[in-house]
Amino acid sequence: MGKRCAAPASARFPQLEVPLRRQTYLLVSFAILSTPIALAAQASPLPAPNPIELAAPQFIALSVRDLASSVRWYGELFGLSELFDAASPDSSTLVKLMGSRSLRVEFVQHRSARSLEQIAGKPTSPDQVYGFAKVGFFVRDLDATIAILRAHGASIEGTWLQRPAAVAANDPVWTRNILVRDNSGNYVQFFESH
Question: What mean pLDDT do residues 31-52 have?
């Protein structure tokens, strides 16, 4: 453990000795001058100097209860084909990678995995637990996507098909969207691409 030095800073570093009144003035001045800078930084963060540029395909991985059912659900909805299939030596873990030009989904079925509800002891919304709460996809035609999801028996949890009155007509972020649950109960959100 390091040894603590009991001597005041002014004794150890005489050049740092500043009268108390001046110290207070400097601290208050610094606080006043830095506040607008801090607020401005919070209000409009600057983009990273070299942002990450995404390229297709996008990738997600899911821990699933029923590998075959999840592969079928996502495979049919997104037109995915099998890219990779493996199992641990004792078959306690099964992995399947499905993909298309724009998306790859890795499915992992662990024999010892449990649902969030089983771990928490009660129904728990994914956004009440740290980590990913949902995954989202932009689609060209939201109405066609809704029809396909309904045909597959997807549970539609929420729809935002009309622009809320509080959102400006020229708002660049808002887009029609829906929130569904996949065959394992995970949230999947679909946004209409502009």
Answer: 53
Q: Is the dihedral of CA 15, 16, 19, 24 positive or negative?
A: positive
- Integer Cα distance of 128 and 25 in angstroms: 45
Task: Give yes or no for a cis peptide into 57 (omega within 30° of 0).
Answer: yes
pLDDT digits (tens, 9 = 90+) for 85-121: 999 999 999 999 999 999 999 999 999 998 887 888 8
Helix (H) or strand (E) holding 52: none
Cβ distance 106 to 161 under 8 Å?
no
Strands 187-192 and 177-181: antiparallel
Strands 93-99 and 103-110: antiparallel
- In the chain, the largest separation of any two C-alpha atoms, in whole Å, equals 79
CA 96 to chain centre: 23
CA nearest to 141, candidates 95, 112, 175, 179? 175
Tokens read off for 158: 């929420």
Separation between Cα atoms, residue 3 and residue 87, nearest integer Å: 56
Q: Which two tokens stand for residue 98?
A: 């499905």
